[in-house]
What does this fold into?
Amino acid sequence: MGKALALLLLTATACAAPATTHPSAAMPVGSCHVMSQPEELYALSDVRPPVPCTQPHQTETYLVTQLTGPLTDTPVRPPHELLVPMVTAGCDYRPIRPYLAAGPHDAQWGVSVWGKVPTPDEWAAGDRTLRCDLLVPTTHPNGGPVLTAPLRGIMNRPESAAIRRCNLEGRDVQCALPHEWEWVEPQGLTRNGCRANAAMFAGRLHGLRIRLGPDRSCWVGRERHRITVGTLREGRAA
Amino acid sequence: MTLGQKDPVAWGDRFPEKPATKRRWWRWPAGTGPLRLRAKSSRHEPRPGSGLLSGLHERPGSRAEPGSPSRPRVARGSRQGGVRRFPLVALLVGVGWAAVMQARLFLGGHVGLAGFGENLPCRLGVANFRDPALAGWEHVQPIWTAHAWTGENCPPEFSTALFAQAAGKWLTPLLGYPGALDLRALGVLFGVLVGVVCGLLVAVTPGRPLFRVGFASAAGLVYADAGFAGYLVSPYAEPTALVAAGFLVVALLLLWERPTAPRVLATAVPALLVVGARPEYVTLVPVIGFALLWVRGRRVVALMVATWIAGLGVFHAVTEARFDDHRAVFQTILYDDPTAAADLASLGLDPELAPAAGLSRDDPSWVAFADRYHRTAHPSPLQVAGFYATHPWHAIRTLGWGFQGVAGLRPHYLGSYPEGAGKPAGTQEHRVAVYSAIWEVFRRGPLLVLVLWVATAGAGFLVVRRRSLTPSEKTLGRLAVVLPLAALAQFAVVVLVHGRVETVRHMAMTNWLTAMCVPVLAVAVALVLTRLRPVPRWQHRDQ
It folds into this structure.
């Protein structure tokens, strides 16, 4: 009995104090969220207080809306398999490019959308807020995704290399990683069209070379020092 | 006629209550006490040492003179309540098995069991530090770092395993391991506790020292076997329950030997640890209650303790067990079921869901049925049990999957080695595989598990009924009856709740109980076979 009591005491002292929470409905667009554990990313809700986007974080909210549909009338939050279609339908992809400040020649790559719904208690209290976050893939081979810059308007900044598509030896990589070629929007062009777009994309053609992929995708790369890091986008080079 | 009646110490073993107090000892007049009686009958006895389990406590200087009421000379502290404990042997065995377990878990690099999706330690404010590119089944990831969980990311589960994990968290920096909780610290702790269990088994098991060492080592070998050792370095709740079950066996043997209030209460501690580890273990409550009440005295205290355990079990079942009828119905009953619609109707579910038979929730095809499933009525475990009672073919089919799950012994998809150990993902280790080898027989004939249970319980019943055996020896008979009952109860709930979904992993406790049946059956059979001759009634007045 004494052993059990001692262990009970031990557990009581070892248990972590509950972390502070932030209501799901009070997460604004542009807020950044720490989800360093896969369990947090896959969970239906997230009530951890947001952090400044200059601090290490994983996701950023680009849209806050309301869940719609007949299931929203139920007092108990529907299960995961029913919420997923609602989240997929509710997280509209159209605001993403304006949020990133992507131009006609910019293509975001690897950015995924993760929806968060209210907790069961918040749902029971009538909250139907749907939060749509953007997640950028990791650039660390042995680590999870981490960002230290806001995604809002990122296409205008050198950090956009983290979400631009590049290629190294036939393998697609982020432009923040070593690469040889960088993708230029749109695809389905002729060689001359690709050259023109590449010139508009990089602001020059001097010292650059272009490649038209088998799917008529347009790629631009350096003529010298072919393996590089960062983007060739005009004015966004680091 | 029992063996060893010439031996006063063995006599004390046979009548543990009588020599318990000096006052009682004095009141027995010369010539009528047990020593006198034994001295009279000694000439009819077989030669000491010819038996297997008893009559084996004799040693030089411990024999009383015939007709003498004097107390036999026994080593001080080696005998409690008339039963010898062999403390030195117990200590050596305990230390030895603790060392064996450490070597078994850590020699040449640690092994364990990959904690695929298990996040129970999150309740202690830690998170698994792992390569995010890995799914979790590939390797053992022992390091957990401090992490502040919020909301439903760390569900408010309670498990008595948290006690052990809290102790592991406390031990982690002391042992020099990185992170806030290192599962290797848990392995060290559990290894030591296994040694304690083995040492205590030596002390509470009747018979010769060699026999006690053999029985305790057979139990230690269960923990060391590849089928169970991995759990000791894992984030699951199972290791706490398995080690606590070892202590429960010790406590029950002690309780049955001589029921006293402290012993009844001491039984409650490991019992609560076992029952509270996982919601499924609630089914052990009636078995433990039965074991507690299977004593000659102190029934009130035993009843009280049984009530506590039952209360905890009910609480656990109500608050924690989330019966997922999807697994029990759609992935088990309806799996490859030609009468799915009719069976759904029998269960009170919407027959329109019949095309979803066999689909898991992760199956893309399930989405089309998710809404209808969400809106239909859901059967309770009792309703599912009632369905099996009225549909024997389904019951047989599901029981078959259950026995296959027991025969599987360990999940085949969870790796045993850490990342960087040079082993491919999901590689399992088999360095100690005694019981695993026995399970090869069960894999060929899963129903042999049932045969083992029945044989163990039957042999145990014979031991309990055999009048020529001492109360101490009969404790092993009771254990032989209780172990299969517990295994059967655990098997039933896993089959009912989990069906054929992850059956092997959920059968860990059933497998441990089944493995323990092997040495207990051997002992029970030996007891029955070596004590065929009856003992005169006058020798059983205190039994």
User: Anything to note?
Assistant: The radius of gyration of chain A is 22 Å. The CA atoms of residues 138 and 152 of chain A lie 18 Å apart. Chain A has two domains: 20-135, 164-222.
